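Appendix B, record 7
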Amino acid sequence: MVKPDSKAPWGNHFVFLHVSVPRLTNAEIQNPLKFIRKAQEIIQSKRSSFGAYLTAKLLETVKKFRGHKTTAKFIHGSLNNSSIAITNMMGPVEKTTLANHAIKGLYFMVVGSPQSLVVTIVSYMGNLRVSLGAEEGFIDSPKLKSCIENAFEMMLNAASATPSNANFLNGHNTSSGP
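Structure tokens (predicted):
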């Protein structure tokens, strides 16, 4: 699976990106892809920031010198001070089997975290799966589901409207401006 003495990092990696949710303006309701672009720019700048690099190195150093339990306490302490956690995982790109039974879909969920709302995202064979976990009685589940379905439909309609928008969603940003 991984070559011995490989220099490439593998295994679980934690980086905390503290991102405020951008405000949705009326113009972005009319064109939701503007909102997506703005959120993407914010996340890209945070991912490229020195703070993300330092956080990852700090966790690595704590794990090396103080052990896994201390690192877990540090991670839990950071999670304790946030209201929502979003995590993602790249899944297999080819069909996978378990005990000679083909896996049709794959989800994962973080349990036992201190947040009132957890969003997990996984890709499996080119399909994106989004899972939500909420504290009991904290969120009206049917209303949240309806809002998410509406948002995905708005994005799909906006992306289908023009070829340049479809290119953006496929990872080919051909527009010269926002």
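Remarks on this record: The first helix runs from residue 26 to 30. Residues 25-81 form one domain.
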